[in-house]
């Protein structure tokens, strides 16, 4: 929740146990990053998808060969598995000595992490290689895989994040055929020059039969059971210098390493043939070997030992409601949380999203002229509305979020499941972004309980080419439509080139609709934003960024039933249960604060091993800001007074 302080006199009670320093270890910054989940918003629109965006592939590594005089040259790509290990191709880190294939000495190798431009190393993490592990059965283009042990741990950031390894993927390569993956690298371009900026491309996996038929001499000889084949044969392929890089596949809300670039064909000039398929080492076949070398599974999606928001905990319950058919297809693949808001004595519709059994998330602008009286959830459920709550700081399209409480609770089913709410740690702005909206079809009428016949409400979902763009790009597009307000950190600007949704649906039908991602593993949707404003002519939509409003949403949606009925055993009124933060997983490693924002003194007695912090200089502080305060305490304990 948002915490409000009186500037004149407020004291914040912080219960800090003896292990404060260990609980706030700076290495815990790594815990804020999950494998396979990118943290960067797109910084520009990319034509044809060739040049990567900054931070788009934070697990991609650059492998340099170091000469005897100390100079280095780019050689291959690699993929970060964890803080200490990089996976690459064996042929990138081996040499021939007396007809034997031997590893290159680690001192002759250097790994760059977080690199985008080969000419620039500012902000790039450089690591020497202490060990080189080549697969024991490696031979030319077979078992072409190696693990490099870095000389020291890397620090995770928005530009350096490990990829996920998943031993649950189906080992049957025939089921992988047709699936699209992404590759990245600084290999030779179509002009046979080394790329200076990181480039990326998508390509589908093709069957062994199709691959061998395309080039029997090459693939018939080198493509074995430990490999798969991928490519477009239209100039979209890997080339010299891309070897060792990964083949990444999106699994819902994360990216998984599925292959390692091994080889491709050559043309008549002996250059790589970008019109030909490429061979990839099948990472799934080597997971056991990788685990033996690294001592772990590499990146996983295990839950991190950090405090989870209330909405994230509730999301786990929703996942239990979702299910799959025998063929692995989600039962609830058609947006089971989408809501159409119905107005009395008025034709027109607004959108919303079910986020609990009692609450709908929508836009405050949906209630500007009149308030909705009912909500249609799914195809058959219509429930009357009890009350509406706009964000207290709503003004025009700023802070344009609202909550609707229903008169009766929703019964969940496969066709009616709430959506999860993205937060600062689960928000994935690079994923496929889904837009939703509603429209009344005046050609067809239907009976709506309590309203009689009304135009039929239809729903449209589109998921192609939705891109989050920068404030500058957004401003360039919206100023032409008369908008002069800047895009704030609590908003997302989405560009939807070629979309019919913005033209076919009026602004009312889009307003309140969700910008969301879909996790095909858990069959659950996560809401990134709620539509506040749209500019049809420019194909631009402004969304309120939900991660920035959780401090307001959570205490309302998941409040105690009667906050004035009783007090907890420690004397803290239940309405302040939300004002509690825990860091660490055990009692000794816990850092907790509780306070009553309406009182001028801390709630409860001051206990032993307690630190009191004077916050009279603060006016407002959020949970995220309070985390920063904890870090400041760790770094400068002289600024606090022990009691």
TrEMBL record:
<feature type="compositionally biased region" description="Acidic residues">
    <location>
        <begin position="563"/>
        <end position="572"/>
    </location>
</feature>
<dbReference type="GO" id="GO:0005576">
    <property type="term" value="C:extracellular region"/>
</dbReference>
<dbReference type="InterPro" id="IPR001254">
    <property type="entry name" value="Trypsin_dom"/>
</dbReference>
<keyword id="KW-0732">Signal</keyword>
<keyword id="KW-1015">Disulfide bond</keyword>
<dbReference type="InterPro" id="IPR043504">
    <property type="entry name" value="Peptidase_S1_PA_chymotrypsin"/>
</dbReference>
<dbReference type="InterPro" id="IPR051333">
    <property type="entry name" value="CLIP_Serine_Protease"/>
</dbReference>
<keyword id="KW-0720">Serine protease</keyword>
<dbReference type="GO" id="GO:0004252">
    <property type="term" value="F:serine-type endopeptidase activity"/>
</dbReference>
<keyword id="KW-0645">Protease</keyword>
<feature type="signal peptide">
    <location>
        <begin position="1"/>
        <end position="23"/>
    </location>
</feature>
<comment type="similarity">
    <text>Belongs to the peptidase S1 family. CLIP subfamily.</text>
</comment>
<feature type="domain" description="Peptidase S1">
    <location>
        <begin position="46"/>
        <end position="295"/>
    </location>
</feature>
<keyword id="KW-0378">Hydrolase</keyword>
<feature type="domain" description="Peptidase S1">
    <location>
        <begin position="321"/>
        <end position="558"/>
    </location>
</feature>
<dbReference type="Pfam" id="PF00089">
    <property type="entry name" value="Trypsin"/>
</dbReference>
<dbReference type="GO" id="GO:0006508">
    <property type="term" value="P:proteolysis"/>
</dbReference>
<protein>
    <submittedName>
        <fullName>Limulus clotting factor C</fullName>
    </submittedName>
</protein>
<feature type="region of interest" description="Disordered">
    <location>
        <begin position="563"/>
        <end position="587"/>
    </location>
</feature>
<dbReference type="InterPro" id="IPR001314">
    <property type="entry name" value="Peptidase_S1A"/>
</dbReference>
<dbReference type="InterPro" id="IPR009003">
    <property type="entry name" value="Peptidase_S1_PA"/>
</dbReference>
<keyword id="KW-0964">Secreted</keyword>
<keyword id="KW-0865">Zymogen</keyword>
């Amino acid at each position: 929740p948002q915490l409000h302080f009186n500037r004149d006199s407020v004291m914040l009670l912080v219960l800090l146990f003896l292990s404060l320093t260990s609980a706030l270890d700076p290495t815990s910054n790594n815990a804020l990053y999950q494998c396979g989940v990118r943290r960067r918003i797109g910084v520009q629109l990319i034509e044809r998808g060739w040049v990567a965006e900054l931070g788009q592939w934070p697990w991609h590594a650059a492998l340099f060969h170091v000469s005897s005089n100390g100079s280095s040259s780019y050689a291959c790509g690699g993929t970060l598995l964890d803080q200490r290990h990089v996976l690459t191709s064996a042929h990138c880190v081996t040499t021939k000595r007396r007809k034997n294939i031997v590893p290159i000495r680690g001192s002759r190798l250097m790994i760059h992490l977080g690199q985008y431009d080969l000419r620039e190393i500012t902000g790039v993490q450089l690591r020497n290689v202490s060990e080189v592990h080549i697969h024991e059965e490696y031979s030319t283009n077979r078992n072409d895989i190696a693990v490099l042990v870095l000389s020291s741990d890397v620090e995770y950031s928005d530009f350096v994040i490990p990829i996920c390894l998943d031993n649950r993927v189906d080992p049957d390569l025939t089921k992988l055929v047709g699936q699209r993956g992404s590759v990245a690298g600084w290999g030779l371009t179509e002009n046979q020059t080394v790329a200076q900026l990181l480039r990326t491309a998508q390509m589908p996996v093709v069957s062994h039969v199709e691959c061998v038929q395309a080039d029997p001499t090459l693939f018939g000889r080198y493509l074995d059971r430990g490999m798969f084949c991928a490519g477009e044969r239209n100039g979209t392929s890997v080339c010299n210098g891309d070897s060792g890089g990964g083949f990444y596949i999106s699994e819902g809300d994360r990216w998984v390493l599925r292959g390692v670039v091994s080889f491709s064909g050559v043309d008549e000039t002996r250059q790589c043939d970008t019109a030909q398929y490429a061979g990839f080492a099948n990472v799934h076949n080597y997971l056991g070997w990788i685990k033996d070398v690294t001592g772990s599974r590499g990146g996983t999606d295990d839950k991190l030992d950090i405090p989870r928001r209330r909405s994230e905990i509730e999301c786990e319950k929703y996942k239990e409601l979702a299910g799959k058919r025998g063929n692995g297809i989600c039962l609830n693949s058609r947006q089971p949380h989408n809501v159409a808001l119905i107005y009395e004595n008025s034709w027109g519709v607004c959108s919303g999203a079910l986020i609990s059994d009692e609450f709908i998330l929508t836009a405050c602008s949906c209630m500007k002229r009149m308030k909705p009286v009912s909500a249609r959830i799914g195809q058959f459920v219509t429930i009357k509305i009890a009350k509406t709550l706009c964000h207290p700081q709503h003004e025009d399209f700023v802070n344009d979020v609202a909550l609707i409480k229903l008169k009766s609770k929703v019964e969940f089913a496969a066709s009616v499941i709430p959506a999860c709410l993205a937060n600062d740690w689960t928000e994935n702005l690079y994923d496929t972004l889904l837009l939703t909206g509603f429209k009344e079809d005046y050609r067809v009428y239907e009976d709506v309980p309590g309203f009689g016949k009304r135009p039929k409400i239809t729903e449209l979902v589109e998921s192609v080419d939705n891109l989050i763009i920068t404030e500058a790009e957004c401003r360039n597009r919206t100023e032409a439509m008369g908008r002069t307000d800047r895009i704030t950190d609590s908003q997302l600007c989405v560009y939807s080139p070629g979309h019919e949704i913005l033209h076919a649906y009026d602004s009312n039908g889009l307003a309140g609709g969700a910008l969301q991602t879909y996790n095909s593993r858990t069959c659950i949707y996560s809401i990134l934003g709620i539509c506040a404003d749209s500019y049809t002519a420019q194909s631009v939509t402004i969304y309120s960024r939900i991660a920035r409003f959780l401090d307001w949403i959570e205490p309302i949606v998941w409040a105690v039933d009667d906050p004035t009925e009783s007090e907890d055993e420690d004397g803290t009124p239940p309405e302040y249960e939300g004002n509690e933060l825990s860091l660490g997983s055990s009692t000794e490693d816990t850092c907790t604060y509780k306070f009553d924002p309406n009182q001028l003194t801390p709630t409860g007695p001051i206990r032993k091993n307690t630190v009191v912090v004077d916050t009279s200089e603060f006016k407002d502080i959020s949970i995220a800001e309070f985390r920063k305060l904890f870090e400041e305490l760790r770094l400068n304990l002289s600024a606090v007074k022990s009691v």
